[in-house]
Design goal:
Blueprint (H helix, E strand, L loop, with lengths): L2 E9 L3 H28 L21 E10 L6 E7 L5 H8 L3 E11 L5 E13 L2 E12 L5 H18 L3 E6 L7 H6 L4 H4 L13 E4 L1 H6 L3 H5 L5 E4 L5 E4 L9 H11 L13 H6 L12
Antiparallel strand pairs: 1-6, 1-7, 2-3, 2-4, 4-5, 5-6, 7-8, 8-10, 9-10
């Protein structure tokens, strides 16, 4: 089953601001997206702590299970330390403590245990990251299986993306299918190959375009302003606090196909990195999520 990914990119402010933002995204954000599941995991008393280090059942079959983790870096020697704990209410203060250190990546994750008591179907993964080679930028992300992304889920996820984008003045944000290495589909098929190569330019060139996205204020100006974007007849165009625009192409996620994709591409093409999108082999395409970009050079 394919995976849905929400991502918000913005500049790094300082360690204290990042620690607070990461905590709110990883815990309060997870509460907004999967509150009932999160509470069930936090209140559970029969999860097995040793399951993080040994191949043993994590808990009763069918139960919800979760963990949190943090990768920190020692700037003196470059050493990265990975730590993880079972996600329980008792353990949560440890996550807040870890976030006060020099964080590269922090995550919270929820799973449904299979018939053997091992992590089976994913429910939600939340992450706050600073790339080791792109330290001036923050990426907030959330992942869930496509099967959990119905109309109610789309409303919750869209609300989360909007509220954090309103606060953070992102250089880019979107909800779409999860792609290899966290790339947008435009990056995957046009390039460059790594997000850290596009983040520094993301207020000048759009990383991609999707069903629900945030166009940064600098690119909104390139495209003629919020009114010009709204004139294209999208389902929703909302100007955010710092001049960015929240753009929802069509009402439902699965409706972003064909003419809807072309209409969005026509509007944002002046801000896209030029190049004709690549088509991969039939075998590769068969395993990938459905393609949702327009196959023409933006120039």
């Amino acid at each position: 089953m394919h995976t849905i990914r929400c991502e918000i990119d913005t500049e790094y402010r300082d360690a204290e601001a990042f620690a607070d933002l990461a905590w709110r995204w990883l815990v309060e954000g997870a509460e907004r997206l999967e509150g009932e599941s999160l509470q069930a995991v936090l209140d559970s008393t029969d999860l097995v702590a040793e399951s993080l280090t040994k191949s043993v059942p994590c808990g009763p079959p069918g139960a919800l299970w979760g963990f949190f983790s943090a990768d920190t870096v020692n700037r003196g020697n470059g050493r990265i330390t990975h730590r993880t704990r079972i996600l329980t209410r008792k353990n949560l203060p440890l996550l807040r403590k870890w976030l006060g250190e020099d964080i590269l990546l922090a995550e919270t994750a929820l799973y449904r245990l299979d018939e053997h008591g091992m992590p089976g179907d994913p429910v939600l993964r939340m992450a706050a990251a600073r790339e080791e080679k792109c330290q001036d930028w923050i990426r907030l992300s959330a992942l869930t299986p496509k099967g959990r992304f119905g109309p109610d889920g789309q409303d919750r996820w869209g609300g989360l993306l909007r509220d954090y984008s309103q606060e953070l003045d992102p250089s880019y944000a979107q909800i779409g299918y999860d792609r290899t290495l966290g790339r947008t589909e435009h990056e995957e098929r046009v390039g460059p190959p790594l997000p850290r190569m596009t983040l520094p330019q993301s207020r000048r060139l759009l990383r991609g375009y999707e069903w629900l996205m945030v166009v940064p204020r600098e690119i909104v100006q390139q495209l003629g302003g919020a009114e010009a974007i709204g004139a294209a007849g999208f389902h929703r165009v909302e100007e955010l606090a710092d001049g960015a625009v929240l753009l929802q192409a069509v009402p439902e996620f699965d409706g972003f196909t064909g003419e809807a994709v072309e209409r969005l591409w026509q509007v944002v093409r002046p801000a896209l990195r030029p190049g004709t999108p690549k088509r991969f082999s039939a075998d590769t395409e068969a395993g990938d999520p459905p393609s949702r970009i327009w196959y023409a050079d933006a120039v």
